[in-house]
Request: fold
Amino acid sequence: MNLDTLGWTSHASTWTDAPGLVPARVVSQQRGLLDILCADGPFRAMLRGNLLEDPPVVGDWVAARLLGDQALVERVLPRRTVLERRRPGGGGPQRIAANVDAVGIVNAPDRDFSPGRMERYIALVRATGAEPRLILSKADTVDDPASWIAQMPGDPLVLSAHDGAGVDALRAWIGQRTVAFLGSSGVGKSSLINALVGDEVRAVKAIADGVGRGQHTTTSRDLLVLPGGGCVIDTPGMREVGLTADADADDAFPEIAALAGSCHWRDCQHDSEPGCAVQEAVLDGRIDARRVDAWRKLLREVAWEERRADVRAQRAQAREWGKTIKAVQRMRKDRGW
Reply:
């Protein structure tokens, strides 16, 4: 296996030679098990104990020790990007993938189509430094794809894995990069990957109610190498798109953020204040009122997440301080101080 096909070139500078260790990339993660790819091929990998609490994710580059037909992951190399969301049900961030250059946000007209959801995905992806791109899949299942495209921000790619339309454009956009696909269950991520790879490498099943042509059955995150170069990461369908404290609502609404800087009042809430450039743009039709409402909602959510993150950091610091105090108390007791 040539490591350059896995994207190693951009990570080579992070590697320090160590006896018995080789660079490898995590290509699969399921129920605590990892599969890695290195120059010697694929290996099922175990983790060194100090990595069990914070394990690597798909896309990570690691230093591994080969042990026959298995491997031991000893450390994780520095990450360029980390794709993460707020953990469902609350709590801290949940890593989805690492070292991703771009993210295809897959939507289908028959499955959970929501411009607001797309905007949340864009903010989530831009927080990592990766490039987001909206994708409309299953375009052949509707009579008027243009009406759906008009509801999507930016310049979406329009595809149909069923007849191959748009797949070449998707392949050209991916290039030699690592691209993850995100989206709800059943939007066609696995079908698109099958079309890119040119084989049925991802399982697809018919939707029970007969709407559309297939339902996503992915239960693990997997990285696949494309025949012409580049890597894609397939992920299970996401029911919740929770933003982390690192997200910036302005990233999903650049035209609104640009206007907000022109408001008369520095602390303008963009509601009913006089001299609000955003509301003026809504009134004269330059900006959709729905997008302004969605922007304000995301601003509030990110502010809330920032406060939650501060509380978590304070609690973690208190726990570490408590451990230090207990260690000192044990040492004093042992030494009879």
In short: The first helix runs from residue 115 to 126. The two ends are 60 Å apart (CA to CA). The longest strand covers residues 21-30.
